[in-house]
């Protein structure tokens, strides 16, 4: 995935806005407070929800658990006209760095 920029967790604020493409159960267990959630499987049908990101000066940062799904998603998003980047290490790295997280049901956030 070297063709796409890598954004380091340390370079983002706790409330940074980025796209989280993990499944609903993963999101519910723990997610970044500013993240936009669209599971990878729903992205083609819901890509219009990302329209506000088209005119930004910086790339749309995309994440999953550890990077595998992002590898398959970034080329597709680029074809749709988005300037995209990968959150290096995914949500595992975000969680490991002690960044702020929320859960759907309260309790401690997890990124299994």
TrEMBL record:
Transmembrane stretches, by residue range? none
InterPro entries noted in UniProt: GlpE_sulfurtransferase (IPR050229), Rhodanese-like_dom (IPR001763), Rhodanese-like_dom_sf (IPR036873)
Q: Which residues form the signal peptide?
A: none
Provide this UniProt record's keywords sorted from A to Z.
Transferase
Pfam families xref list = Rhodanese
Q: Which SMART domains does the UniProt record give?
A: RHOD
Q: Name one GO molecular function term.
A: transferase activity
PROSITE patterns in the record, alphabetically? RHODANESE_3 (PS50206)
Q: Which residues form the Rhodanese domain?
A: 12-103
Q: What is this protein called?
A: Sulfurtransferase
Per the UniProt record, the source organism is Knoellia sinensis KCTC 19936
């Amino acid at each position: 995935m070297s063709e796409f920029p890598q954004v380091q967790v340390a370079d983002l604020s706790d409330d940074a806005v980025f796209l989280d493409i993990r499944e609903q159960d993963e999101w519910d267990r723990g997610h970044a407070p500013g993240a936009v959630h669209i599971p990878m499987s729903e992205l083609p049908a819901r890509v219009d929800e990302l329209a506000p990101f088209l005119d930004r000066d910086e790339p749309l940062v995309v994440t999953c658990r550890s990077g595998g799904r992002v590898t398959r998603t970034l080329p597709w998003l680029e074809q749709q006209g988005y300037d995209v980047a990968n959150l290096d290490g995914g949500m595992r790295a975000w969680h490991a760095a002690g960044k702020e997280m929320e859960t759907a049901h309260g309790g401690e956030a997890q990124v299994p």
